[in-house]
Design brief:
The chain is of the alpha/beta class. The chain is built from 11 helices and 10 strands. The protein has a 5-stranded parallel beta sheet with strand order 3-2-4-1-5. The protein has a 5-stranded mixed beta sheet with strand order 6-7-10-8-9, with helices on both faces. The protein binds S-adenosylmethionine (SAM). The site of S-adenosylmethionine has 24 residues, from helix 5, strand 7, strand 8 and strand 10.
Length: 284
């Protein structure tokens, strides 16, 4: 059966060629044009599956211009597929302008389900998956990174970041500085590939493992952080982690309780007034 006329959004494998679905292969064979982020890169995948469809480069720099040509093809009754180098197009990849222009021109855009590093990593992370926020790449400059993390610090949802291997130590260091050492993180590396690795623990533990093992600073990485958890402290002494009380007590040896509570609250992401009241109630 022929395809109905549409722009097809086709996810491609993020490491394991067997993850290209049979429907994806059929669509890629039947469309009259495949818009690729990089024709040379995708050429290898396409020839592996004997897909001989004509290719066209569509990347961040020419996407708006190429959209008109693709709309022309759709109006001639021809279907087009969009793929990126790996995973789902538009997810930290080109395609947004194309899809919005094709929809605005009144043509169908039809998505195929398939590989996406963020969702694949989340599904095996052990972190809460009922609510999450995909944040793409953290800024490369420290100030931008810290500003972005500060805005996310109290977000209760699981946070998902894409990360490049040469920036992973910087990002973990910034996360530790802004979210505190105790935040749970999971680093998923080379997912679906030979060296697939999941490292989990507090950000301090994961940072130590990654610093000590240069192999952990290689390949493709999804970094996930547990969402912010408000520690209940008022009227419930058991709910305060011993570490928090230890820090508060130590700081209080040198500083007034108010100041000690403010610093401790900053370190652990707690409310300073509640911690101060708790300190008073504990006899500090
Ligand atoms: N559109 C793609 C998707 O759906 O996942 C993402 C494209 S983005 C330009 C590339 C980033 O995705 C990498 O830097 C890495 O953070 C993540 N990524 C891609 N493949 C991965 C893999 N096999 N394991 C872990 N992370 C991966």
């Amino acid at each position: 059966m022929g395809l109905s006329v549409a722009l097809y959004i086709v996810p491609t494998p993020i490491g394991n060629l067997e993850d290209l679905s049979s429907r994806a292969i059929t669509v890629l064979k039947q469309v009259s044009l495949i818009a690729c982020e990089d024709t040379r890169h995708s050429g290898k995948l396409l020839s592996h599956f004997s897909i001989e469809t004509k290719k066209m480069a569509l990347h961040d720099h020419n996407e708006r211009d190429r959209a008109q040509g693709i709309i022309q093809k759709l109006s001639n009754g021809e279907s087009v597929a969009l793929i990126s180098d790996a995973g789902t197009p538009l997810i930290s990849d080109p395609g947004y302008h194309l899809v919005s222009q094709v929809r605005a021109a009144g043509f169908d855009v039809s998505p195929l389900p398939g590989p996406c590093a963020a969702i694949t990593a989340l599904s095996a992370s052990g972190l809460p998956s009922d609510r999450f926020s995909f944040e793409g790449f953290l800024p490369s400059k420290e100030k931008g990174r810290v500003d972005k993390l500060t805005a996310l610090k109290e977000d209760p949802r699981t946070l998902i970041f894409y990360e490049s291997p040469h920036r992973i130590l910087h990002s973990l260091t910034s996360i530790s500085a802004v979210f505190g050492d105790e935040r749970q993180v999971v680093m998923a590396r080379e997912v679906t590939k030979v060296f697939e690795t999941f490292l989990s623990g507090t950000v301090a533990e994961v940072l130590a493992k990654v610093s000590q093992d240069s192999n952990q600073q290689k390949g493709e990485i999804v970094l996930m952080c547990h969402g912010f958890r408000q520690v209940k402290i008022e009227g419930d002494e058991q709910a305060i982690p011993a570490k928090v009380m230890q820090t508060l007590t130590l700081l209080n040896e040198e500083l007034p309780l108010k100041k000690a509570a403010a610093i401790t609250a900053e370190i652990y992401g707690l409310k300073k007034n509640a911690l101060y009241k708790h300190g008073l109630a504990s006899g500090l």
